[in-house]
Structures are given as C-alpha cells and as structure tokens.
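Q: For a teaching handout, I want to show students what a protein-ligand complex looks like in token form. Below are the inputs, and the small molecule is guanosine-5'-triphosphate. Please produce the holo structure.
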Amino acid sequence: MIGAVLAGGRSKRFGGNKLLYRIDGKPLILHTIERLESANEIEEVVIVASPENAEKLKTFGYQVLVDELLVGPIGGIYTALGLGDAFVTAGDMPRIVPEFVDYIIKYFHKSRKAVCVPRWINGHIEPLHAAYSMGFLDIIEEQLALEEYMIKRAIEKANVCYLTIEKVPFEWRESFFNVNRKDDLRKLGIPEPLV
Ligand SMILES: Nc1nc2c(ncn2[C@@H]2O[C@H](COP(=O)(O)OP(=O)(O)OP(=O)(O)O)[C@@H](O)[C@H]2O)c(=O)[nH]1
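A: Here is the structure, written as tokens, with guanosine-5'-triphosphate included.
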C-alpha cells in the first residue's frame, strides 16, 4: 500500500516550517517517512505537499504530489487517493510504530471497508494514522461540494472499521505523537530552541 505523508500545513503554532526543522541533523519529515517506510505493508512513500513546499520536498527523493485544494488534511487525503489506496499520516509524526501501521493495513484489507481508523474509547479518532480506500473519494467529493472540510465528518459518512486503541499494545500509542509547537520538541529529548 502507498504511504502518504501530508505536508501542506502552515505550521502556525510551531512558527517556521516544522517539517524541515532538523532533529539530530535530519528534517522532521524524514524521521516520519523513515518510520513509515519501514512498515512491511508500505510499498512506497509519497509526500502530499502544498505548491509552496513542493520544490524543497522533492529534493528528498520521494514522489511529491501537489495538493492544489489546501483545505486541510481532507484535501491532502483526496490528492493521495488519486494514486490508489493509501495509509495516510501527518508529516510531523517522528515516532510512528511500523508494527502498528502494518496491523491497521492488514485489518483494512480484511475488513474491506472504505476507511480503517484508530479510535479511543472516548470516541476521538486518529484520522492521520489511518488506511483509506479509493472508494472514499466519492464521499470526500460530496463533502468538498458542501464546503465541509472536517475529515471527521467525512469519515462518519463512510463504511468504517474502527480499531480500539485501548485494545492494542500500550507502546503503540507513541505512534500518534506529533509536533505542533516548539515545546513538543522537549518530549523528543531535544531542548526547545531559544529563537
Ligand atoms: N496536503 C496537505 N497537508 C496538510 C494540510 N493542512 C495540514 N496538512 C498537514 O497535516 C498535518 C497536520 O497538520 P496540523 O499540524 O494540524 O496543521 P499545520 O498547518 O501543519 O500546523 P498549524 O498551522 O500549527 O495548525 C501536517 O503534516 C500538515 O503539514 C493541507 O491543506 N494539505
């Protein structure tokens, strides 16, 4: 399955392009990609970028799709599904657990549902760590026509398989860690930059 890494955000909370921020000498997005591509079920990783970020991201040697919609993750997922079924993540997830990715993809194939997404017992879902089929494109198109851009709403309309997060190994939760603010770098053991 394709692994699609979303990279069309504005990093407002972080300030500056967080995906290019170097951690141990390597841009954050490459940490994410390397984790994702070490999952056995991932055949190829593609980056779904904003037109603004595309040129720089192409230098990393991965296929880059340009998201022309820029309406949030739903537009990135839409662009990725143009290539085929995809496991979609955010670009700011340097702690992805490959075994968890494989588990979700296998569950997705078995279930034959349009989307397979992890869900907490409290109902909160993790749509940027989920498997999507091309069959989901129709629902996204409907939502785009309605100017409803919340991915959560689109998923609610689909035939979905939910994976209860509390039922999988506790350590896998680390997979959802993402960098939003400079302060989050501390959780990676990196001192927050002074500027
Ligand atoms: N392709 C694409 N990716 C997006 C879009 N919006 C957000 N993303 C990506 O989705 C992931 C999660 O985004 P957020 O961290 O919630 O948003 P952000 O814009 O990057 O950051 P903030 O401005 O601080 O909210 C990141 O990897 C973003 O690059 C979009 O419109 N298109």
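A: Two things your students might notice: The two ends are 40 Å apart (CA to CA). The longest strand covers residues 2-7.
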